Amino acid sequence: MIVLGIESSCDETGIALYDTERGLLSHALHSQIAMHQEYGGVVPELASRDHVRRALPLLQQALASAQITMREVDAIAYTQGPGLAGALLVGASVACGLGFALQKPMIGIHHLEGHLLSPLLASRPPEFPFVALLVSGGHTQLMRVDGVGRYTLLGETLDDAAGEAFDKSAKLLGLAYPGGPAISQLATSGDPAVHQFPRPMLHSKDLNFSFSGLKTAVLTAVKKYPDALTEQDKANVARGFVDALIDVLVAKCKTAMKETRLKRLVIAGGVGANQQLRAALNAAAASSNPKKRFEVYYPELEFCTDNGAMIAFAGAMRLRQLKEKPELASYDYSFNVKPRWPLSELPPA
Ligand code: KG4
Ligand code: ZN
Predict the structure, then answer these.
(1) How far is residue 282's CA from residue 302's CA, in Å, rounded to a whole number?
(2) 273: CA distance to ligand 1 center in Å?
(3) Is there an atom of ligand 1 within 6 Å of 253 CB?
(4) How many domains, in total, are found in the chain?
């Protein structure tokens, strides 16, 4: 079965074709980062208009590279939420328009489920059950994953998401949007001894996070410099920030592994591309105490941030039994998007 996946929840248009027998056939992506950079963040109206421009050319590209036609597609999956309402509507209308024209079954996918399952696209996929740390621009959650659609929330951020903290702190240092990759690069030349920022909720005895105080600590540190910050000053602040944020993420992951007694940890979402986080988690996983050891799984780097492949894959996982259970798919082409959509509302697959 071949599933077409369409992602348009924020500032990336992603189109992919996933075959349940042969795996990922092709994927095409356009990132709007350059367009939004001028405004220091995502401008929703511009995002929607750009999705309109990109969706069909990217679809042509994905079909050509998979060497198939739309008629060979068995089902269409699209991101139904959460995300920017206008941006979601573009992907949903393109998906349902194609579905109606070709009479293909449709399935609306939860964006976070796409992220959660994205490590299963890797060459070394994890088996269920696992603990997942979902760290993106909009979400920071620890989850127990027992199967497709079987998700238990263990903890989440009470305020800013980890990616948001990265981006806001980077902005305070004058780095362009989205600052996550830039601030972590800058941190590599910073002195870790100069700034000791707070590790919010490190000892909270639960698996929740809070990052807004850390961003304020960065602001306070930046303001303390009487003159403009030198490159080295900025690198030192960046290092203090990255070290603090990663300490918290790693500590909470270790606690989640201990509490669930699971042995597999999966990282998903844009911040999962962060090299410092990967190094720190790998070190924690290889604990000298064999009882505390666990394995860490990452999506391919290109599938950490938003993409169509994870949506096509999540669609394929949900429609696996389509032949036996045709009621799983919808032939109702009147779509509605869900800009706010708790993952807990998803049914098991
Ligand atoms: O998953 P994603 O593409 O979008 C959402 O669903 O939110 O994540 C984007 C976030 C941004 O905040 C970006 O700065 C962050 O992921 N990010 C990184 C890195 N690459 C992307 N943060 C830190 N280090 C990175 N290498
Ligand atoms: Zn995302």
Answers:
(1) 20
(2) 7
(3) no
(4) 2
CA distances to 136, 171, 187 from 182, in Å: 16, 10, 9
Q: What is the pLDDT of residues 124-158, one digit of tens each?
A: 999 999 999 999 999 999 999 999 999 999 999 99
> Which residue's CA is the closest to the ligand 1 atom numbered 23?
180
Ligand 1 midpoint to CA 100 (Å): 34
Question: Which residue is associated with the tokens 């050319």?
Answer: 57
Instruction: Find the 278 Cα to ligand 2 centroid distance in Å.
Output: 18
Would you give the DSSP letter of residue 54? H
Q: Are residues 73 and 17 in the same domain?
A: yes
Spatial distance between the Cα atoms of 299 and 56, rounded to a whole number of angstroms = 26
Residue 342 has which token pair?
């708790």
SS3 61: helix
- Structural domain boundaries enclosing 60: 2-117+303-345
Please report, for the domain that includes residue 27, its CATH number. 3.30.420.40
Residue 32, ligand 1, Cβ within 6 A: no
Could you read off the pLDDT of 211-259 as tens digits, one per residue? Answer: 999 999 999 999 999 899 999 999 999 999 999 999 999 999 999 999 9
Say yes or no: 249 and 338 in one domain: no
Q: Domain for residue 203, yes or no?
A: yes
Q: Which of 110, 271, 311 to mutate to test the pocket of ligand 1 (most atoms within 8 A of CB)?
A: 271
Give the position, in ligand 1's atom list, of the atom nearest the Cα of 269. Answer: 1
**What's the pLDDT band for 325 if we cut at 50, 70, 90?**
confident
Q: What is the pTM of this model?
A: 0.95
Proportion of the chain above pLDDT 70, given as a percent: 100
